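Supplementary Note 3. Input sequence used for the single-chain structure prediction.
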Amino acid sequence: MNLSLLGAYMLAVLTLLLTPGPVVALVTGTAARYGGRRAFTTLIGTNGASLVLIALAVLMLAGIVSLSALFLSLLGIAGSLFIGWGAVASLRKRSETEDIKEKAVNGEGGGIVRGFVTGIANPKDILFFVSFFPQFIAVTGDFTASIMTLSLVWIVFDFTVLSLYIVMVKSWVPERHGRRIEICSSFFLLAVSFFGVIYNARELVLR
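The predicted structure, written as discrete structure tokens, is reproduced below.
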């Protein structure tokens, strides 16, 4: 096993996960507003999305799947629009009491589905797994062993870092500030959506 390459991969994954992005914003906003249980459910969805992106990267490395730049740009636009839609929906909620009651009935506010779609649409993760992940495939001399090692490192780091975010929010942020945290997270997601649409649309025009 190439330990120096593995160490570089671990550092890259840790840096990516610690950098604020759509997934971190969604998970922390959900934790602050709807509690740790709902946030961990959302985390499961985002982690599942990561596994799908890893599988896609593996298929590309094996030569089974080939994604065009046009498709990636369209996927980026669709994902950005979904993230923006979720952010706007959160910002349009009514009073805190009514909102929590509505969430209890409808099962909204984070959750596996929203976590999964946000993770799949996350520009950082798409870029990482499509462009950056393949550079570490030589971590072992066997293709399957390399994929298993890199995948396991990602899953452990992803779950650990996001769990720490949830614990910190629940431990250090008073419950009365939950709605404010959710609003800040929603504005951040809205900004990510806006710039994601502009960037991918620009890429389409340039092509």
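The chain is about 80% helix and 0% strand. The mean pLDDT is 78.
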